[in-house]
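Students often ask why we bother encoding 3D structure as a string. The short answer is that it lets us treat folding as translation between two languages. Here is a chain of 153 residues written in the first language.
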Amino acid sequence: MTIARGAGTEIIRSVMYHYDGGNTTAQTLIYGKQHHIYTVLNITCFSDYAVTSQNDGLQVSITGFDSLDATADRSIYLFALGKTHGQQTFVWNDKFSFMGTEPTGLSGGLGNDAYQDAIADQGSTTRQKLIMQKLHSNDKWMVTCTYIDQNNE
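And here it is in the second language, the structure alphabet:
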């Protein structure tokens, strides 16, 4: 049985990564889709190291529209974990939401309710994304992200 994904649906989703080895490429936790709203419930990060070793850190950010100056595809950092010693868990459980795609037709900062409507309307196809990136090739993380995907197509 497939899950209903039509307009007006809400789906609880989860993504899990074992972010290991020499890969320091940014990894996408959520790929935005036009007319969707994502509410992140939590991000759990486990430092997968022996007790005597350490991780150099992990950053989580949203790549998307900056309402201050109408800049597209900007990284907006949510949190960065500094050096952590092995076998520690960090839980980000401050809920936040973001749109699936960026608005169109905006220049300058958020000026009035029409700008707010344009952001909510998600007129472009430029995806907004939730991204994580480890800060050193030797780092090892296990990361789980749980979120609600609201479809407003």
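Translate back mentally: The mean pLDDT is 88. Keep this in mind for the problem set.
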